[in-house]
Amino acid sequence: MARIKIEKNSSRKEVIVSKAAALFREKGFKAASMRDLAESVGVEAASLYNHIKSKTELLHEICFGVANRFMHKMDEVESGSNSAIEKVEQLIRFHIDEMVNHYEEVYVSDREWKHLADPYLSNFQTQRRMYRKRFAAIIEDGIRNKEIKKIDAPTAVLILLHAIGGIESWHRSTQKINASNLTDNMITILVGGLELK
Amino acid sequence: MARIKIEKNSSRKEVIVSKAAALFREKGFKAASMRDLAESVGVEAASLYNHIKSKTELLHEICFGVANRFMHKMDEVESGSNSAIEKVEQLIRFHIDEMVNHYEEVYVSDREWKHLADPYLSNFQTQRRMYRKRFAAIIEDGIRNKEIKKIDAPTAVLILLHAIGGIESWHRSTQKINASNLTDNMITILVGGLELK
DNA sequence: CCTACCGATCGGTAGG
DNA sequence: CCTACCGATCGGTAGG
Fold this sequence. Notes:
The structure is a homodimer. Chain A is an all-alpha fold. Chain A contains eight helices and no strands. Chain A has two domains: 12-48, Arc Repressor Mutant, subunit A (Orthogonal Bundle); 57-194, Tetracycline Repressor, domain 2 (Orthogonal Bundle).
């Protein structure tokens, strides 16, 4: 009985977090009100607080959910035995996959993290900085191995991440064909620009 | 006398718009209050309304100021007699220049335009769509001329614009050397990926 | 999960 | 350019 209740509560919370992500993406964190969210969930605003502690808690859940997935992927890619250029392509494909399948959450964690409160804010910023450093280290490996052009690795990382994260049409192309087309174009343009000729 | 007063007012307004851009960039449009802005200008909140009509008017000024500059540059580039790849490079350099010299305004017009009210909102969206179409048309010319790889032009435009617009470190590198380094890297990575080998 | 409600803050106005 | 102030809306709580 208690077990079932916990499960019900946590799935209810997941629904709220997911609806919050959609709302925060559409209106921005500050402009989205808890009354908006309540309406989209189908309850009164006060009822939301039986499942969550605060509005910012919703933002934590979204931002760290995304950050954790990226960190785990980075662990996986780093420990693999692929070439640097293959690792870069793996990461690009993962980012695209995240944009296609978790568009709202990724978008929000990318553009609304500034509204996190401070123990979480600096934690998030640190994770972000580390992720980028590890990504740049892979590119630097590739430069040393003569797989990748001699470019500034941190700049290349920013270009890759923003190029992918900026495309708003990912979520419109849930049709796998379109997403796959977009992905191929992306890789051609981005990796084509990186590969040693 | 009247002349001088008008000039004083308009320069006062320019200061307010500029301070607003810095504040909107830092906190986001919704989270930045008119009281914050008043403090940064050095007056009481109510006094701002002798120079501006509303908070959203500030956003109009910022967004359309940027949009107009981009449109004029596009006119200039289009009417030139350079090759397609040269035109693309001109536009990239202009975007970078805008990021270095008008960071706050460009950042805000890029990420806070959603908060425009509706006659302005759709106008802005249309201008944006048109700019991207004209940019894509240049790339398509380049593809036809065999200057540029056969890629999807609209996707390439989004990649270019977001790659440049996403770099937060532009404004930290007002030292011309750093900006120039960043620019060269950018061109190498982006155009290098576009040029026909 | 709801009704009822609170204190804080917001954009903006009146009047001088 | 300021003081004084308004109505609306916000995140969140009490109590059931």
